[in-house]
Here is the input.
Amino acid sequence: MKLPAGCQPVTGDALDSASFQDQVSGADAWVHLIGVPRPNPSKAAEFRTVDLASVQAAAQAAQAGGIAHFVYVSVAQPAPVMKAYVAVRAECENAIRAAGLNATFVRPWYVLGPGHWWPLALLPFYKLAEIVPFTRETAQRLGLVTRSQMTAALAWAVNHPCQGIRILSVREIRTCPENM
Here is the structure.
């Protein structure tokens, strides 16, 4: 596993905070990247048993361990599709809030990268929707971001902890200082 300097991997069962809680105590930041791969509507039950359960365990460990800043990859909200996925991600955000953690919620809609390029075919429709006043806000909220933009936004969030809750939407992910 290749990690940046200063990062330390933690092993444990992502659904059981007791399996990793002692290893994270006092850390500066927590970046939560656990979730069901290739989400689609047929995986609604998995979103609850993996995504939600892992956030609940992580929030418990972060709270008990005095983690200064929790970074969570959520999803753009609201959205007209993937309702179960969006609902669980919102529930995850609420669990982090309820734990009283300082947190950044990074809210992409779709991340382009290796094996995930097909939405590029939708770019002309996005551009058109961004011009039309009554679809502009939705098109911008549900815009596409690249893997490098996401990586930069996550690094920025870790390097710029917040007090309270901060949300990085698609617009902020794209314009993050590390992406300039």
About this structure: The chain has one domain: 17-179. The longest helix spans residues 44-65.
